Amino acid sequence: MSTSFLLWNDENIQKASEWLKQGEVVAFPTETVYGLGADATNEAAIKKIFEAKGRPSDNPLIVHLSDVEQMSRYVTEITPLAKQLIDAFMPGPLTVILKSNGKIAKNVTAGLDTVGLRIPDHFAARELIKASDLPVAAPSANLSGKPSPTSAVHVYQDLKDKISAILDGGPTGVGVESTVVDCTGSHAVILRPGGITKQDIEHVLQTPVEDATILETKDKPKSPGMKYTHYEPEVPMILIDGDDDYFRKKIKQYQSEGKKVGLLVSEELARQAQGDVVITVGTREDIATVANQLYHALRSFKKTDVDVILAETFIEDGVGQAVMNRMKKAATYIDVGAKLK
Ligand code: TXA
Ligand code: MG
């Protein structure tokens, strides 16, 4: 199958929505990352998503809707907790987990009785969903295990000839995926940190919120997807949890072993560290830019000849929690050094 590149104008959104209705898969932009969409009520169409990505079948997909009315058609109840979060953050980078009423295909939810739902804050995404009049299941549009795509070109690199079309909406804004929040119980539980921060949620709910990922292990994840290797660049990446002197020492150590060292660092550190390839992701103060640049940076090392990537740690506050969650998953291991920062 050859993959069509479609600029997102009215005509192409219409074309893409027809493909969805016919049970084909189409990649589309959202405000977080590109999604790989198919009709969430069509089991055969959903199977194509899992095949194209090489995704394990026990990892459920998020269903994308154009508005709250459409969302209410697929759940037993929009709980008061969910309603508060939906009112505050949707459309936006938030996914709520609610009880499914069974209308969503079984392979979307991986057999669970719950379903993840979100309304993306991207005009093309919502127009596509509206035009198809379907709930659109969409994981990130990358090969399983690779960094999520933040541009149409990233999607093409991973899924060329495996999907019908890519709707090109330019680079995405947030750059990390939505925050997944379990709203089935009396308390909200964060299953994956993302574009909406823990502080944002606590501010709206006026109560402390549990982040289940803090104590998460790969054997016992709260969110099924979090147990797999994720976001991996093509080269081993070591996360350096230390001050700038420690980081420089590590660069020298690897270089003295004859290795070509790639750096994934802030602009501050880039100014005072000498790697063989240096990719910056913004300043330490501007964590939103770091989130926006992270996946592109991880992918960029593929085109270089570095033997190892040394990556800086960022402060785990606000969107920094999502950034560090992804960097830890991408890393081969964390090197804990002196901490003066
Ligand atoms: O920003 C995003 O959320 C992007 C864009 C495309 O919308 N999508 C995305 O989908 O990141 P994906 O499939 O890469 O990640 C979905 C995450 C996985 O960790 C999965 O396990 C979790 O959501 N998830 C989905 N349904 C769930 C459920 N019923 N219960 C618990 N976790 C669920
Ligand atoms: Mg993903």
List keywords for this structure.
341 residues; binds threonylcarbamoyladenylate; 11 helices; eleven-stranded mixed beta sheet; DHBP synthase; Rossmann fold; binds magnesium ion
Short description:
With 341 residues, the chain is an alpha/beta fold. Helix content is 31%, strand content 19%. It has helices at 10-21, 43-53, 68-72, 80-89, 123-132, 152-159, 198-205, 244-256, 267-270, 287-300, 320-330; strands spanning 4-7, 26-28, 35-39, 62-64, 94-99, 114-118, 136-137, 165-168, 179-182, 189-192, 210-211, 237-241, 261-265, 277-280, 308-312, 333-336.
Structural description of this entry:
This protein is an alpha/beta fold and 341 residues long. The protein has two domains: 4-211, Alpha-Beta Complex (DHBP synthase); 237-336, 3-Layer(aba) Sandwich (Rossmann fold), CATH 3.40.50. It contains eleven helices and 16 strands. The strands form two sheets. Strands 1-8-2-3-7-4-6-5-9-10-11 form an eleven-stranded mixed beta sheet, sandwiched between helices. Strands 14-13-15-12-16 form a five-stranded parallel beta sheet, with helices on both faces. Strand 2 (26-28) and strand 3 form a beta hairpin. The radius of gyration is 20 Å and the shape is globular. The termini are far apart. Threonylcarbamoyladenylate binds at residues 30, 32-33, 35, 59-62, 93, 95, 97, 109, 112, 114-116, 120, 138-140, 177-178, 180, 191-192, 223-226. Keywords: ATP-binding, Cytoplasm, Nucleotide-binding, Nucleotidyltransferase, Transferase, tRNA processing. L-threonine binds at residues 32, 64, 138, 178. Residues 10-196 form the YrdC-like domain.
